[in-house]
Design goal:
The protein has 511 residues and is mainly beta. Helices cover 8% and strands 38% of the residues. The chain has a domain of 126 residues: Methylamine Dehydrogenase, Chain H (7 Propeller), CATH 2.130.10. The chain has five helices and 33 strands. The strands form eight sheets. Strands 5-1-33-32-31 form a five-stranded mixed sheet, with no helix packed on it. β23 and β24 form a beta hairpin. It comes from Tolypocladium ophioglossoides (strain CBS 100239) (Snaketongue truffleclub).
Length: 511
Amino acid sequence: MSSSKDNVDRPDEDLDQTEMLAADDAAEEIVANDGDDIAMDSDNEDEELELVLHNDSIAYFDQPQDSLFAIAQHPVHASLIAIGGSAGPDDDAPGAGWLFDTSAAQTRPVLPPSYASDPAAAAEAPKSTQLQSLFELDGHSDSINALAWTLPRGEVLVSGGLDGRMRAWKADVRPGAGVAVALLGEAQEVEEINWLAPCPSPANPNTVALGASDGSVWIYTIDPSDASNPCQIVQSYFLHTAACTAGAWTPDGQLLATVSEDSSLYVWDVWGVAAAQGLVADNGMTALSLTGEDQRFEVEGGLYSIAIDPKGAFVAAGGASGAVKVVSLPRLTPATQSQSSKSQARGRAAAGKSSAADQSTGGQILASLHTQSDSVETLAVSLAPTTPPTTLLAAGSVDGSIVVYDAGRRFAVRRHIPGAHDGHSVVRLDFVRDSWLLTSCGMDGVVRRWDLRASGSSSAAGAGGDAGLLREWRGHRGDGEGGGVLGFVQGQTGERLVTAGDDGVALVFEA
């Protein structure tokens, strides 16, 4: 684990050039005790103390010994949080994860102690609650890189590691009596797992997709009732020629979109719904395929992030040099459609092979955006409450900026915040569901929330000013090296946020 004390360059002290050093003083020699150099007091200690004191959290979990790379929130019991990362500072340290419950976190008073009826008692009240581990996830020989609760009820917690292992844990949540966790089984088909994504399809519960460093994509269904074979392979795909960096399901869980460092985007027909409607490519696997061979889609340096419109109309892929490609998705009719409707769909698909603009087949490049100067590492989409709803696409970049596009206005820039995280990488973006509120975290160690209702660019604004900043939460060590927030969850309402820090601490904040 990196040290919390950074090396800081200090400018030379100002000297008054009109004053001369006396000759007697110049001849005086000061000898250190025992011939050793006298250590100077470092201003870094004061700097570290300031960071520790500036803590907005209402609770913390500090059992991890090193960086936390992954965090996941139970879909039904929002207070149940899973985190994972590296177990120690050694290069060969195994991975580890934990479960904890944030419901024990005490709400902090809105007013300062001086406003309380008994200021002395209020001042002595605990400022932050220490949370205890409910269960420890073990068995990984390298860092846990991804976590996911299966949908719709969070019956299974899945962990993915840089050791290539996918481990499945059955979680029996007992309100008022904690949670009982037991290992179901594991699978290891790849060298490294980059991401996990639970399938939201009600017809296919407890299903999860993963992307690997070798470019492969795997879909598993976890069956808690099958002790002999709980991790069952549904599909596996091998069209990406470089690391598969991100993936996302459509809202109905019928299609899975993935991107890769080879600048390819594939939308997989996992359950055969698109094939039944004649909307698949010649390979029989994808409902949509775009690669760098198409110069309109080429992103030199690869693609690293993905997000899908809540209405299932488009997929956005972010990549190197600030590029964002927006592509229309196929429109699938319900599986209960009549045979005549299926025939009509096949007819439209056949006609669409000669027309990239056919909305039923998808594949139309709706926008090629390039507002930011460095890799787009995170994307988020929201349906803001207007009539009709406004679709917002937010992009966070390594250059420290956030850009918000208005899909209804041909993806015109609605907000540009160059200094969103003080020059440090933006790690994750997430909208409070169906709202104008966007939450972001970065390598500066800060979590911020933005109100995007005001239109227009804020190119002159940093992390405040007219950029729409509502609030920020501090408590993690930042400034990049050895610090930063690597992920967060905020539930459906955004009232409580839980973070995973590169400093090995998870913090709970209250909005």
